[in-house]
From TrEMBL:
This is Signal recognition particle 19 kDa protein. It is found in: Cytoplasm; Nucleus, Nucleolus; Nucleus, Nucleoplasm. Residues 115-144 are annotated as: Disordered. It comes from Dromaius novaehollandiae. Coiled coil: none annotated. Gene3D superfamilies: Signal recognition particle, SRP19-like subunit (3.30.56.30). The keyword Nucleus applies. Signal peptide: none annotated. Component of the signal recognition particle (SRP) complex, a ribonucleoprotein complex that mediates the cotranslational targeting of secretory and membrane proteins to the endoplasmic reticulum (ER). Binds directly to 7SL RNA. Mediates binding of SRP54 to the SRP complex. InterPro entries: Signal_recog_particle_SRP19, SRP19-like_sf. Keywords: Cytoplasm, Nucleus, Ribonucleoprotein, RNA-binding, Signal recognition particle.
């Protein structure tokens, strides 16, 4: 504990942790979501969080094999933790527009849906779903 108190905010151990569960709109507060559900994103990944934070100029580190303790699903897509340097050595925020960890989480959740990988995936999946519907042979039952 004493080591953490003496470590400067620029040390990797002092970077803030952001788990994908914090921004996931599929999770409840009890399951680990930390932002309002209307601002949250559907199943974000640590890579997406890293992309948006690095793009805005944060010092970012991804720990691929770390898991959120409350995450029961051991699947690869739920793994990962993003470490972000929030403060400089003197204690001032690295980026003045992000003074708190909450501000970083809200920004990431707001920006992830705009990522190219997201917009392409969404467009592609909708088309493949429609094609899938037409190809099914189960007549009689229609989609409500």
């Amino acid at each position: 504990m004493a080591a953490a108190a003496t470590a400067s905010p620029a040390d990797k151990e002092r970077f803030i942790c952001i788990y994908p569960a914090y921004l996931n709109n599929k999770k409840t507060i009890a399951e680990g979501r930390r932002i309002p559900i209307d601002k949250a994103v559907e199943n974000p990944t640590s890579t997406e969080i890293q992309d948006v934070c690095a793009a805005v100029g944060f010092n970012v580190l991804v720990e691929k094999n770390k898991m959120y303790p409350r995450e029961w699903n051991r699947d690869v897509q739920y793994r990962g933790r993003v470490r972000i340097q929030l403060k400089q050595d003197d204690g001032n925020p690295c980026l003045p527009q992000f003074p708190t960890r909450k501000s970083v989480m809200l920004y990431a959740a707001e920006t992830i849906p705009k990522l190219k990988t997201r917009t392409q995936k969404m467009g592609g999946s909708e088309q493949s779903l429609q094609q899938g519907e037409g190809g099914k042979k189960g007549k009689g039952k229609k989609k409500k």
